[in-house]
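$ run holo --ligand "S-adenosylmethionine" --emit tokens
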Amino acid sequence: MLSYRHAFHAGNHADVLKHAVQSLILEALSIKDKGFSYIDTHAGAGGYALDHEWTQKKSEYLGGIAPLWQQRQQWPQLAGYFAAIEAMNGGEQLDFYPGSPKVAEYFQRPQDSLTLMELHHNEVELLRENMAPQGRRSGRSKGPTIHHRDGFEGLIALLPPTPKRGLVLIDPPYELKEDYQTLATTLAKAYKRWPIGIYAIWYPLLAKNVDRSGALKTAIANSGFQDILCAELSVSEQAQDFGMYGSGMMILNPPWKLDEQLSELLPRLTKALAQDQAADWSLRWLKGQA
Ligand SMILES: C[S@@+](CC[C@H](N)C(=O)[O-])C[C@H]1O[C@@H](n2cnc3c(N)ncnc32)[C@H](O)[C@@H]1O
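-- output --
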């Protein structure tokens, strides 16, 4: 049974890292006029009201997007990400936070195609509402294709996509231990069908006794892809038994210069989001362009 609801975590430090990287990749894909495909395997609800009782429960956005929003003029390299947030809010006030589908919608042009998958029946209904035509930024772009289905299995069925260049965002909740293994085997299959796609994979950095990020990186390094960039940002000290102290993004076939952009961005983001002295970042090529 699926119990994870992203509204409890919307706009937290992990969302900031994930959506900042997603925005930089979509910006890079938008440089050429040629259309791109965007596939979101674990789409969630699409967008989140920050005053919703679930989001308010722990108000994780107060340690994520909220402090950055106040100083957004000082982050020109994240202008696209902030513009996607602004498009949902329409003013100074930060009332809504875009999920990955709304971030992608912001960058979509008429020639681009968006496919969103979500397995939870309530979340997929919210996703349909949030991505409905009246909520879309541009009437010129076609609406997304939304599938109520398993995103791992769905991804393989959809590859290779048309247009043939683009980004797959893979953002599982990791509430099932099998998610780690399924992710690695899915990527090995994806490589056979669409080796030239860009894949961005979010993963949590957890307490020592439960962290699986090391094994995940090893498995993905063996999936067939030759260029794998790995960006991690921790906001606090790693505990022994419980809790997420940071997160990472693995980018397979990253666009040109993403490593340079992230090497400038990560130290500043870490400083802005730090919860204690142990906050840290790393950026390295897991495979390829060292
Ligand atoms: C971390 S949330 C996604 C957040 C979203 N990507 C964003 O950045 O706004 C993970 C979502 O995956 C959904 N989910 C869990 N298992 C899934 C599966 N096998 N296929 C598709 N969706 C799944 C959950 O219901 C949840 O909404």
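-- notes --
The CA atoms of residues 123 and 285 lie 35 Å apart.
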